[in-house]
Amino acid sequence: MKFLRNLLDKLEKPFKKGEKLEKLYPVYEMHDTVLFTPGDVTQGTTHVRDALDLKRMMVTVVIALLPCVLVALYNTGYQANLAISKLGASALDVWQTKLFLQLGFAHNPADLLANVVYGGLFFLPIFVMTFAVGGVIEVLTAVIRNHEVNEGFLVTGFLFPLTLPPTVPLWQVALGIAFGVFIGKEIFGGTGMNVLNPALTGRAFLFFAYPAQISGDSPWIAANMSAVKGASTLPDVVSGATWLGKAAASKSAALGASTVFGADWWNAFWGLIPGSMGETSVAACLIGAAILILTQVGSWRTMFGVVVGTFLMGFLLYGMPSDTNHMFAVHPMWHVVLGGWAFGTVFMATDPVSSSFTNGGKLVYGFFIGVMVILVRVVNPAYPEGMMLAILFMNMFAPFIDHFFVQANIKRRLSRDVV
Q1: Regions of the chain with pLDDT less than 50
Q2: Beta carbons of 349 and 355 less than 8 angstroms apart
């Protein structure tokens, strides 16, 4: 480690103030502080010091996201291989499939390695494109503003690909992450100043700008189902639609606590269903939640508020008679395993910058996210997901919520001092 420290110290010289590469100092500093804790510390007795700096906090979130990444790799390949093996459909005529077959793999959903490899061939290009475009924007804005590269993008770069379907075009990935980073964060001043979650901002931009590639039946399984004769009558199990989408479009009220279209609740819990690549597995999200709560990086209050709001509103609306909207027949237990509910609750709603920061505010903030996601899903079946809009909406109200709790604390302290 001493050798590496000495090497970095030598490389720093041309980046110091007054040297040729002074303007590019943020580029050097970014690599130096990833490898080593910064040597410069605040002096004096008026500051609180903490061993956990921003980079280490972001790395902790990334570690918590790794189970979701692994499920994304496996389930993306599993869903495609399952559809192809059941119906004899040809895979998409893309380089991923050609390379997959050249490596000697077959479309066998029982082969764990084949599923991971095939899923990785779709996930990794999206992941790389996200970091390439978003990383360049992050570095450029740091150089222009003459400050260090913010670590917030490390988490955004992991979150954004996990919210996308496997078939999304790479040029849309580039546009989405550019919009999310620049409009959702940099114009507000960078990490710590943004009002909205950057990853969700980019996802929302793609959803409304290019709905054909982000919603509907076709994006969720990386297999060319249209190549099958009679594709319009494919069974639901391999149609490519998400289960929330099927429930919203259903003309039958046969939806209950144990099954949705005969599907098993535990399949949804483990994540073996169509959907955004990293959002399908509640189990993976629970592992991430445990890591974030134990390290005190993510707030359990926010997560708890979402759970309470979801079940309260879910049970209030569950079973209401409706001849046209059968989302009322979806049991609340299904809402927590479908769509991006678990992923949003654990990783998006708890964003320390765009969420509430007071303890009481976190409970209220999370509660209304839970309430709103059910309202959007059930009352407006034209948009069956809801989690993304619920979080973005409450992002705008987080400072408003905190204001009342801060003022209450001030009044309490003033009254105590007077006494």
Answers
A1: 229-239, 253-255, 257
A2: yes
User: Using an 8 Å Cβ cutoff, are 111 and 103 in contact?
Assistant: no
260 and 208 both lie in a single domain: no
**84, 107 contact by CB (below 8 A):** yes
Q: Which domain holds residue 399?
A: 255-418
Q: What digits encode the pLDDT tens for the residues 13-26?
A: 776 676 666 666 67
- Round the average pLDDT of the chain to a whole number and report it: 82
Confidence (pTM): 0.84
Q: Are 220 and 274 in contact (CB under 8 A)?
A: yes
Q: Map tokens 């100043």 to a residue.
A: 193
Which amino acid would we find at residue 199? A
Contact status, residue 384 vs residue 248, Cβ threshold 8 Å: yes
How are the residues of the chain apportioned to helix, strand and coil, as percentages rounded to the nearest 5? 65, 0, 35
pLDDT at residue 31, rounded to an integer:
61
In the chain, the number of structural domains is 2
Query: CA 275 to CA 267: how far, in whole Å?
Result: 13
* Domain boundary pick from 181, 214, 247: 214
Specify the DSSP element, H or E, that contains 259.
strand 259-260
Under 8 Å between Cβ of 357 and 364: no
Alpha-carbon distance of 387 to 320, in angstroms, equals 22
Residue 45 lies in a domain: no
Statement to judge: residues 210 and 259 lie in one domain: no
Q: Are residues 262 and 202 in the same domain?
A: no
Q: How far is CA 329 from the centre of its chain?
A: 27
- How far is the CA of 409 from the CAs of 51, 240, 405, in angstroms? 28, 51, 6
Gap between the Cα atoms of 99 and 381, Å rounded: 39
Q: What is d(CA 116, CA 409) in angstroms, rounded to the nearest whole number?
A: 51
Cα–Cα nearest to 401, from 367, 345, 372, 362: 362
Please check whether residue 61 lies inside any domain of the structure. Answer: yes
| Secondary element (H or E) of residue 264 | strand 263-264
Quick check: 345 and 285 in contact, CB under 8 A?
yes
d(CA 8, CA 30): 12
232-249 per-position pLDDT tens digit: 444 444 445 566 666 666
Mark which of 214, 241, 273 sits at the end of a domain. 214
